[in-house]
């Protein structure tokens, strides 16, 4: 596949965060781009407004005429999340088209670039966005494929003129094994996606394979304590790591820290976003961009102006009466990082949390972890499990999690009941959290708390 020959691109599952980034990339190159997804979202609306046609019915008669037969200038991309009985998927398959996974195309695009790839079961979206922003802000002008909407750019893809590319490397379905980076960051290797891997050991093995694919002379940067044999380690408040954050403190609601490694010390870095976990992400990002000779002053300036990623510790309402934060966390360790940071920032406030579990398998596999971490909040509203690609599993539901929690102030509500509860109770500190469609509550909750 020669990407330089491509003139037409069809994406099956175009509304996904990674797929929409590829759609925008090929549209930017001047290709005819269209695709299918099962539901209309704000993201697919944005694609439509940018001139990328999207359909929402799995019907082959809606596929444009120009995609009727295989051709060397035509590229068909699919996401592994698309059901294998999809009519459109099978149309292209049976017509003799070569179908490419999103990750394969990302591998082809990044092949000739100096690639910084960020992997991890959590932390990768914010860290890759930080790396891209530091490079962009310091004049390095990279391209980037991100797993979220970077608030500084209101996009999940950046088009740069340099030969540097920043890529979020996704471990789901072993997708990141299509990448051969010059610099790789691994932020975490907690058990996840056990529906794919079976157990933690196989997930760990996959991360080790990813680390082994770094180009000759390249660099691995990873969080200290991960089961990796080589590379530069980073940590918080641990001088035995190759790079670490020290003197972490909060002043007027902003996080500050000192970056220290063997060659360099950058004092009093101000973070544009909140959270101790984001200080840790910043240490990893700094260690990576130093490989491209970015100056200490440029790093400080960029991190102060970094506005984060949509749905990653995102402030929705911030008034004297109400604080409302929305976060994508859907794994116990992500929830722990998010809730701990909120409690450090607002120690005197009662934390009300609305949580939507994501996937039956994840809820089953980490039920005890979810129950423990969610018991850290002061009041919990639990929504039903968002199934995504899965069918129900007997006995696995939100009530199962509630029954395991030690927290007394907990209840299960549907979305409308959750909105009504917030309207009646007007919590002073609210967190919505989850990776499903809980984001549909963000705007109405913002309206409720902004007006009261």
TrEMBL record:
<dbReference type="InterPro" id="IPR000713">
    <property type="entry name" value="Mur_ligase_N"/>
</dbReference>
<dbReference type="GO" id="GO:0008763">
    <property type="term" value="F:UDP-N-acetylmuramate-L-alanine ligase activity"/>
</dbReference>
<comment type="pathway">
    <text>Cell wall biogenesis; peptidoglycan biosynthesis.</text>
</comment>
<keyword id="KW-0132">Cell division</keyword>
<comment type="function">
    <text>Cell wall formation.</text>
</comment>
<keyword id="KW-0436">Ligase</keyword>
<dbReference type="InterPro" id="IPR004101">
    <property type="entry name" value="Mur_ligase_C"/>
</dbReference>
<dbReference type="Pfam" id="PF08245">
    <property type="entry name" value="Mur_ligase_M"/>
</dbReference>
<feature type="binding site">
    <location>
        <begin position="120"/>
        <end position="126"/>
    </location>
    <ligand>
        <name>ATP</name>
    </ligand>
</feature>
<dbReference type="InterPro" id="IPR005758">
    <property type="entry name" value="UDP-N-AcMur_Ala_ligase_MurC"/>
</dbReference>
<keyword id="KW-0963">Cytoplasm</keyword>
<feature type="domain" description="Mur ligase central">
    <location>
        <begin position="118"/>
        <end position="288"/>
    </location>
</feature>
<keyword id="KW-0547">Nucleotide-binding</keyword>
<comment type="similarity">
    <text>Belongs to the MurCDEF family.</text>
</comment>
<feature type="domain" description="Mur ligase N-terminal catalytic">
    <location>
        <begin position="9"/>
        <end position="111"/>
    </location>
</feature>
<dbReference type="InterPro" id="IPR036615">
    <property type="entry name" value="Mur_ligase_C_dom_sf"/>
</dbReference>
<keyword id="KW-0961">Cell wall biogenesis/degradation</keyword>
<dbReference type="InterPro" id="IPR036565">
    <property type="entry name" value="Mur-like_cat_sf"/>
</dbReference>
<dbReference type="InterPro" id="IPR013221">
    <property type="entry name" value="Mur_ligase_cen"/>
</dbReference>
<protein>
    <recommendedName>
        <fullName>UDP-N-acetylmuramate--L-alanine ligase</fullName>
        <ecNumber>6.3.2.8</ecNumber>
    </recommendedName>
</protein>
<keyword id="KW-0573">Peptidoglycan synthesis</keyword>
<keyword id="KW-0067">ATP-binding</keyword>
<dbReference type="Pfam" id="PF02875">
    <property type="entry name" value="Mur_ligase_C"/>
</dbReference>
<keyword id="KW-0133">Cell shape</keyword>
<keyword id="KW-0131">Cell cycle</keyword>
<dbReference type="InterPro" id="IPR050061">
    <property type="entry name" value="MurCDEF_pg_biosynth"/>
</dbReference>
<dbReference type="Pfam" id="PF01225">
    <property type="entry name" value="Mur_ligase"/>
</dbReference>
<feature type="domain" description="Mur ligase C-terminal">
    <location>
        <begin position="311"/>
        <end position="435"/>
    </location>
</feature>
């Amino acid at each position: 596949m020669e990407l330089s020959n491509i003139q037409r691109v069809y994406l099956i599952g175009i509304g996904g965060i990674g797929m929409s980034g590829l759609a925008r990339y090929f549209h930017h190159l001047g290709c005819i781009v269209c695709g299918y997804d099962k539901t209309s979202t704000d993201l697919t609306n944005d694609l439509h407004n940018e001139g990328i046609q999207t359909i929402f019915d799995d019907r082959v008669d809606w596929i444009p005429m120009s995609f009727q037969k295989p051709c060397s200038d035509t590229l068909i991309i699919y996401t592994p999340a698309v059901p294998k009985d999809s009519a459109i998927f099978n149309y292209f398959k049976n017509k003799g088209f070569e179908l490419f996974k999103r990750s394969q195309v990302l591998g082809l695009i990044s092949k000739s670039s100096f690639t910084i790839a960020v992997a991890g079961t959590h932390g990768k979206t914010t860290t890759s966005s930080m790396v891209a922003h530091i490079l962009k802000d310091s004049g390095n002008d990279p391209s980037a494929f991100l797993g979220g909407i970077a608030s500084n750019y209101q996009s999940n893809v950046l088009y740069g003129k340099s030969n540097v590319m920043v890529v979020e490397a996704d471990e789901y379905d072993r997708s990141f094994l299509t990448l051969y980076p010059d610099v790789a960051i691994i932020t975490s290797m907690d058990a996840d996606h056990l529906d794919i891997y079976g157990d933690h050991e196989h997930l760990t093995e996959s991360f080790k394979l990813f680390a082994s694919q770094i180009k000759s002379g390249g660099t691995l940067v990873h969080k200290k304590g991960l089961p990796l044999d080589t590379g530069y380690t980073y940590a918080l408040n641990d001088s035995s790591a190759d790079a670490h954050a020290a003197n972490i403190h909060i002043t007027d609601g902003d996080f500050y820290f000192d970056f220290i490694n063997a060659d360099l010390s950058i004092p009093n870095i101000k973070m544009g976003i909140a959270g101790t976990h984001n200080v840790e992400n910043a240490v990893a990002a700094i260690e990576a961009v130093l490989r491209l000779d970015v100056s200490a002053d440029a790093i400080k300036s960029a991190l102060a102006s970094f506005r984060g990623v949509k749905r990653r510790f995102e402030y929705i309402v911030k008034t004297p009466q109400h604080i409302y934060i929305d976060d994508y966390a859907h794994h116990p360790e992500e929830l722990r990082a998010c809730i701990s940071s909120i409690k450090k920032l607002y120690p005197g406030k009662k934390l009300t949390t609305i949580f939507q579990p994501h996937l039956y398998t994840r809820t089953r596999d980490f039920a005890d972890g979810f129950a423990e971490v969610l018991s850290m909040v002061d009041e919990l509203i639990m929504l039903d499990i968002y199934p995504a690609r899965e069918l129900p599993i007997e006995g696995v539901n939100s009530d199962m999690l509630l029954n395991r929690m030690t927290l007394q102030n907990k209840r299960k509500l549907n979305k409308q009941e959750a909105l009504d509860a917030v309207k009646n109770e007007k919590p002073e500190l609210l967190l919505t959290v989850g990776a499903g469609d809980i984001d549909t509550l963000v705007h109405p909750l913002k309206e409720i708390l902004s007006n009261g």
